[in-house]
Write a sequence for this structure.
């Protein structure tokens, strides 16, 4: 920032003081004042107020989240919600000139990846990214320690754990923590470490499992792994787990953690690398929706599709797609629906099973 920027800020402050003087004068017409405010403000910035009347300058399209981080980084990190002009609003609300913004905070709140969709200022986005990076590092270290301990115990060489950790320099890491973090992320394996220490011995089988899976984009779903909350993970398309399913996490090289249903057909292969398996629990809000593929088979008749879609609609379930094929009077429909959990899915299956001419309703993955 140079002198020119400083002069611009000074002129803006002077101009706003003049507006405040007009607002406080007895002759002031509130409507005329607001009209003047809208005309005179610069198109690329807005001015908003704190509940105490302090003035903050933000870019156009800023949200309460940007405002919170502008007030203070800790206010931003613990931002639970906001009130704009005394009304509670979502964090993605676009602020307008002259708004009075009150930030609602909670010590239990913490930034998540969803916030990056709402924050537009570099200050807010950098603070959020910095926090998430730190959180991911801490999680990876805890998981890496767990993987290493389980692997060495299985190989009956747990006593050599300090020697194994000291192999960090052989990978070019600056310290033990970097090695463990990389292990927790799945960037390296325990086999890689042991091979560096004694290349002539094969301690573990090569990890070829990654080629068997397709992965979704990393999602900001709340899951708990080894008692650690809010961990980011991939969800394998092979089984599409939803809340209520028994699950297991698997560390895949270069992919991090992938979550599968406990009955997933891929698990027998994965269990050969048992040191990479981790217990997983859900931590989701009731409103979170998950896509589920449902297969319905029955004898074709007039109005069958209408009855099936109405059954889903009456349960207030969102249907994102349907594909129906008829062969030799047998109709097979594939629905993609959005549910909160297994219990809600079971309710849909029961209701659909009662539709006339329906012979089979099941959750499908192919």
């Amino acid at each position: 920032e140079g002198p020119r920027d400083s002069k611009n800020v000074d002129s803006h402050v002077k101009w706003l003081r003049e507006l405040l003087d007009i607002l406080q004068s007895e002759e002031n017409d509130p409507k005329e004042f607001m009209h003047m405010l809208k005309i005179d403000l610069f198109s690329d910035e807005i001015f908003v107020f704190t509940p105490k009347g302090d003035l903050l300058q933000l870019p156009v399209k800023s949200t309460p989240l940007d405002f919170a981080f502008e007030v203070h980084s800790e206010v931003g990190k613990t931002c639970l919600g906001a009130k704009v002009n005394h009304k509670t609003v979502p964090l993605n609300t676009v602020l307008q000139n002259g708004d009075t913004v009150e930030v609602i905070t909670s010590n239990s709140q913490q930034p998540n990846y969803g916030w990056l969709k709402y924050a537009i200022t570099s200050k807010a986005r950098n603070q959020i990214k910095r926090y998430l990076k730190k959180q991911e590092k801490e999680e990876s270290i805890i998981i890496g320690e767990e993987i290493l301990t389980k692997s060495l115990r299985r190989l009956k060489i747990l006593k050599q754990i300090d020697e194994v950790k000291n192999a960090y320099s052989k990978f070019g890491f600056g310290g033990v923590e970097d090695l463990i973090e990389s292990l927790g992320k799945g960037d390296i394996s325990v086999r890689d470490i042991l091979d560096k220490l004694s290349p002539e011995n094969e301690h573990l089988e090569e990890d070829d499992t990654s080629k068997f899976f397709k992965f979704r984009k990393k999602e900001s779903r709340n899951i708990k792994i080894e008692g650690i909350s809010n961990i980011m993970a991939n969800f394998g398309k092979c089984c599409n787990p939803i809340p209520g399913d028994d699950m297991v996490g698997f560390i895949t090289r270069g992919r991090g953690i992938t979550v599968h249903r406990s009955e997933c057909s891929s698990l027998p292969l994965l269990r050969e690398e048992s040191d990479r398996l981790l217990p997983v629990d859900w931590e989701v809000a009731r409103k979170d929706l998950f896509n589920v593929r449902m297969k319905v088979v029955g004898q074709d008749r007039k109005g069958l599709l209408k009855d099936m879609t109405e059954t889903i609609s009456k349960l207030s379930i969102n249907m994102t797609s349907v594909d129906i094929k008829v062969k030799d009077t047998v109709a097979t429909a594939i629905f993609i629906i959005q549910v909160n959990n297994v219990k809600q899915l079971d309710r849909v299956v029961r209701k659909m099973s009662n539709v006339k001419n329906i012979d089979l309703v099941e959750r499908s993955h192919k």
Q: What stands out?
A: The two ends are 57 Å apart (CA to CA). The chain has eleven helices and 14 strands. Residues 132-197 form one domain. The longest helix spans residues 122-154.
